[in-house]
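Q: I'm building a small set of examples for a reading group on sequence design. Run inverse folding on the following structure and report the sequence directly after it, with nothing in between.
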């Protein structure tokens, strides 16, 4: 769902950082304070030509949406508790026309959305398990090689997948994602555990998917999972594995994104060998929804290059 690192991070970290991409001399500033961002979600599950399917992946029956009929593959990986339709409706609708040689696959990760029951178990390796499941799904769909587009938690899953299966991932696009959990972030995760303190606009989309009573339990379990990684793995989600990524990688960033501390963007750029950066100067966390047409064009251009 969301990386809810809101104005508290701005106050604690200042959110004033200049990032320079060494290969392109691109720089930008993120200034403080940053207002809290709200994730926009559309629950409409219709798009011309899109098909909803299910496949058995390991022990899970995985629900996914398939659009386009090309012979190349790209998988869209949603954020925490996110689904294909809540997180990627503009991409399911728009990318097939821009990528006529691709099939666009958007999934509900195991334990989320329609890929239940059962609910996800947030073990210390749940990102690795999601990455393995995504790879298996694409293999079952006939793609030995494919591209990955991941937002927030889905971007983390994409980073893990590209590091674990470097020969299979052709290209990688991530935004709103981090490869480690800082002490500051661990404290904030605990602070956002109680969803009753969220605005209705932030709660209601997830309540529609998981139910008013069940959503708080699942969100709290997600918080526990992140804190477990922080304690048991010293915050290392996949930072130690970034060096294994071979795929050309595009990091897209909203310069006003309050959901991740600013350190993560230069860290990804400096630790993934072949990276590029695109910045939305006024973008926040949900740039692919807020600027859907521009975002889709950028992603398509990168995947086709």
């Amino acid at each position: 769902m969301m990386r809810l690192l809101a104005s508290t991070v701005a106050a604690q970290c200042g959110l004033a950082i200049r990032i320079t991409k060494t290969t392109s001399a691109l720089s930008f500033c993120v200034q403080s304070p940053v207002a809290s961002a709200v994730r926009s979600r559309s629950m409409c599950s219709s798009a011309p030509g899109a098909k909803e399917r299910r496949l058995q992946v390991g022990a899970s029956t995985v629900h996914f949406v398939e659009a386009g009929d090309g012979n190349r593959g790209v998988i869209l990986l949603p954020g925490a508790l996110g689904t294909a339709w809540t997180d990627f409706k503009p991409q399911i609708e728009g990318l097939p026309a821009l990528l006529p040689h691709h099939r666009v696959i958007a999934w509900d990760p195991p334990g989320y959305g329609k890929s239940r029951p059962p609910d996800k178990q947030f073990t210390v390796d749940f990102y690795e398990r999601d990455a393995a499941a995504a790879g298996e799904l694409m293999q079952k769909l006939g793609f030995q090689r494919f591209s990955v587009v991941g937002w927030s938690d889905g971007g983390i899953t994409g980073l893990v997948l590209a590091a674990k299966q470097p020969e299979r991932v052709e290209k990688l696009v991530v935004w709103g994602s981090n490869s480690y959990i800082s002490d500051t972030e661990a404290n904030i995760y605990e602070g956002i555990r109680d969803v009753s303190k969220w605005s209705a606009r932030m709660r209601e989309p997830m309540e529609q998917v998981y139910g008013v009573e069940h959503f708080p339990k699942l969100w709290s379990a997600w918080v526990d999972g992140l804190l477990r990684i922080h304690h048991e793995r010293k915050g290392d989600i996949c930072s130690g594995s970034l060096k294994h990524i071979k795929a050309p990688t595009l990091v897209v960033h909203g310069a006003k994104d309050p959901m991740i501390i600013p350190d993560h963007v230069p860290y990804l750029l400096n630790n993934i060998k072949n990276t590029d950066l695109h910045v939305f100067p006024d973008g926040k966390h949900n740039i692919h929804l807020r600027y859907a047409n521009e975002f889709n064009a950028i992603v398509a251009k990168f995947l086709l290059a």
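Residues 1-43 have pLDDT under 50 and may be disordered.
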